[in-house]
Every structure is written in structure tokens, then in C-alpha cells.
């Protein structure tokens, strides 16, 4: 009987000890979890004044949070593709953001960003600076247009130097030939005639270089006037009449020319005269060049189109992509014989652009070419037609 009692007491004591140990262990575990569990992280917030400033900046601007997340960005940053949603997508920019957050020192660097096959790269100047509270400010400026202008200027200077060397070298050689043939009057006359042609070509080249430079530095709309298309054509054809007569080319005018455009009369005349002259030069003798004027309506906007068509040698598809480039010639030999400089069509394109218009070409080899310059029609023209 006593043995059974001792056994029961032992079991009761073991049960009490087990419950106590279990309670102590659970309490200790609960305390450990309370100590180990971190406090919830407060979300990073951009100060309202910073948001206001970022939205006013002309540069692309982003505010980056402590975990590389984009807290705020202006439209320029999204347009340049620096961020997508809440992520910085340019690896070099993201790398510099992390470095600035660690070192708390601003950095400035340039980076080139590809935009896919066939698309030109962006050249960005990027500034990254710490803001406090582990936030980082990123500012970026697109330098692509400036670099493109510099590249264009370098190419233009190089092309000008090359183009000037040719006639200058020819004049020098011809002068030496005249000196060597001093005892041969017939040879002197021959070389002198060639010297005159080269001098004229050199003079025309210098004139067109000056014209193109002036066009690029000038805004013709500052002295714009209302001009009738018929008057511009009168002036342009008057310049080309002698060449047309020399080549026995018949100039034909069709269409309604009682339309008014706004712009610089001299520049518009230059553009049309260049188109007519080219048509004469690249047509066979006794051919016909047609100048047609028409009114077109595109999405409610009215334009005047002047087309210059010839039935000459035509232009291949690959050359059509380049004919408006400076100094580019489809037929170098014919262009040189006729004093061409390769600047005429680039001048036409520039004049059309600064007047709010365009110029385009249709051509087939052996069938001829049609150049069309399009200019905005002035509303007063349509009003006068309605009143009449």
C-alpha cells in the first residue's frame, strides 16, 4: 500500500515539474521573439518642397529611396527612359546611386544609353547627390542634340575644305598651263575658258556656303511678308530662263497660282529656282519641265504645293535617301560640268523647314523626277475666295 502511494506521489510531482518547465520554456520563447522581432520600417517619404522643386526642373529628375526604389520622378526622367515604374533601369546610374548613398558624396558622370536596334543612343550628363534619410537625388540632361550639332559642324567644315580644294587646285593648274602655253594663243584661250568655268564654280560654291550658313543662323519669319505663289514663280523662272533657252528646254506652268504664303520672298524664290535649275540640268536637251501649283487639304490644314517635274535621267531609290544631304551629288560628272555644288537641295530643304513646310521627291530611273515643295496656305487666301 505504501509503495503505491509513493508511486502516485512521484507521478504527481513529475507532472507538476513538467508543467512548470513547459510554462517557463514557453514564456522564455515568447520573450525571445519579442526581443528578436524588428520594429516595422517606416516608409521613406519625399518632402513636399522637394517634390515641388523636382517638378519645376527642366532636367530629368528622380528621388531615390533607401532601397533603390523611385520615390518620385518628373516627366522628363520617364521620357528619357531612366526609370520604369519604381525602378531605375540604367545600370550605371543605379550603381552610382548606391555609391553615393554609401559615401555621402555627390558625383557627376556621362553615360551613353542605347535605345534599341536602329535607334540613336542617348548621351546623358548625370549628377547624383545625397538628400538625407538615405535618399538620393538624380539629375540628368540629354546632351545628344548638342553632340549632334558639333558632329554636323565638324562634317560641314571637313566637306567645305574638300569641296573648296577641288576648284582652287584646278584654277592653280590651269594658271600654270596658261603660263606654259604663253606662245600658243589657241591653248591660252582654251585654258582661260576652263579657268573661267572653274572660277565661276568656285564663286558659286562660296556663295552657297555663305547662303546656307546665313540660313542656319537666321530666322526668316522675323521679316516675313505675305507673298503670292505666282510672284515667287515669276522670279524663280526668270533666273532659269537663260539656262532653259541654252538647253532648249520648254518650261510649262500649270495650276492656280493665286495662293498666298507667309515668308521671306527671296528665300522662297531661291528654293524654287534651285528646283527648276536642277530639273533643267538633269533633263535632255529639248525636253520639258513642268511647274504645277495646287492646293491640298490634310486633316483640315491647307497647304500650297509647287511641283517641278522633268522627264530626265531619274534618281535611284538609294540616292533618293541622300539627295538632300550637303554636298551629295547623284551624277558628279554632270554636276561638275554644270557648276553644281551639291548644296542646292539641302538649301531647299532648309528653306522649306523654316517656313513650316516640307520638300519631297518622286523619281524612277529613266522616267524622270518630281520635286514637290509644300508650304502652309494663309487663311486670307481662302477667305478671299469665299467672298468672291
UniProtKB/TrEMBL annotation:
Transmembrane segments: none
Broadest EC class assigned to this enzyme: transferase
A Pfam family annotated for this UniProt entry: HATPase_c
Cell compartments where the protein resides: Cell membrane
Known EC number: 2.7.13.3
InterPro entries: BphY/WalK/GraS-like, HATPase_C_sf, HATPase_dom, His_kinase_dom, HisK_dim/P_dom, HisK_dim/P_sf, Sig_transdc_His_kin-like_C
UniProt entry keywords in alphabetical sequence: Kinase, Membrane, Phosphoprotein, Transferase, Two-component regulatory system
GO cellular component, one term: plasma membrane
Annotated GO MF terms: calcium ion binding; phosphoprotein phosphatase activity; phosphorelay sensor kinase activity
Domain Histidine kinase: 159-379
Protein name: Sensor-like histidine kinase SenX3
Amino acid at each position: 500500500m505504501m509503495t503505491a502511494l509513493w508511486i502516485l506521489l512521484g507521478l504527481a510531482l513529475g507532472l507538476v515539474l513538467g508543467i512548470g518547465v513547459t510554462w517557463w520554456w514557453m514564456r522564455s520563447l515568447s520573450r525571445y521573439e519579442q526581443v528578436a522581432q524588428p520594429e516595422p520600417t517606416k516608409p521613406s517619404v519625399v518632402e513636399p518642397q522637394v517634390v515641388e522643386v523636382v517638378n519645376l526642373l527642366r532636367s530629368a529628375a528622380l528621388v531615390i529611396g533607401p532601397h533603390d526604389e523611385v520615390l518620385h520622378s518628373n516627366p522628363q526622367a520617364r521620357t528619357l527612359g531612366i526609370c520604369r515604374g519604381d525602378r531605375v533601369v540604367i545600370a550605371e546610374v543605379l550603381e552610382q546611386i548606391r555609391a553615393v548613398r554609401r559615401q555621402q558624396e555627390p558625383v557627376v558622370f556621362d553615360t551613353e544609353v542605347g535605345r534599341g536596334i536602329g535607334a540613336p543612343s542617348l548621351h546623358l550628363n548625370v549628377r547624383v547627390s545625397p538628400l538625407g534619410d538615405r535618399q538620393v537625388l538624380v539629375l540628368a540632361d540629354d546632351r545628344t542634340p548638342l553632340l549632334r550639332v558639333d558632329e554636323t559642324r565638324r562634317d560641314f567644315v571637313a566637306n567645305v575644305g574638300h569641296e573648296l580644294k577641288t576648284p582652287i587646285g584646278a584654277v592653280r593648274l590651269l594658271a600654270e598651263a596658261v603660263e606654259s602655253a604663253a606662245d600658243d594663243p589657241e591653248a591660252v584661250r582654251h585654258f582661260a575658258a576652263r579657268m573661267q568655268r572653274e572660277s565661276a564654280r568656285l564663286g558659286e560654291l562660296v556663295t552657297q556656303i555663305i547662303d546656307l550658313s546665313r540660313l542656319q543662323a537666321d530666322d526668316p519669319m522675323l521679316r516675313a511678308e505675305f507673298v503670292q505663289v505666282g510672284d515667287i514663280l515669276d522670279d524663280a523662272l526668270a533666273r532659269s530662263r537663260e539656262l532653259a533657252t541654252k538647253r532648249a528646254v520648254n518650261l510649262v506652268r500649270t495650276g492656280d497660282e493665286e495662293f498666298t504664303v507667309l515668308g521671306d520672298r527671296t528665300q522662297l524664290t531661291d528654293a524654287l529656282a534651285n528646283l527648276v535649275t536642277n530639273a533643267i540640268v538633269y533633263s535632255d536637251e529639248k525636253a520639258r519641265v513642268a511647274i504645277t501649283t495646287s492646293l491640298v487639304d490634310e486633316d483640315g490644314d491647307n497647304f500650297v504645293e509647287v511641283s517641278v517635274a522633268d522627264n530626265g535621267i531619274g534618281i535611284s531609290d538609294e540616292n533618293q535617301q541622300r539627295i538632300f544631304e550637303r554636298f551629295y551629288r547623284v551624277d558628279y560628272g554632270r554636276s561638275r560640268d554644270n557648276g553644281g555644288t551639291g548644296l542646292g537641295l539641302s538649301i531647299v530643304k532648309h528653306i522649306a523647314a523654316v517656313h513650316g513646310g516640307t520638300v519631297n521627291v518622286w523619281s524612277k530611273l529613266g522616267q524622270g523626277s518630281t520635286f514637290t515643295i509644300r508650304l502652309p496656305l494663309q487663311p486670307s487666301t481662302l477667305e478671299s475666295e469665299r467672298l468672291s
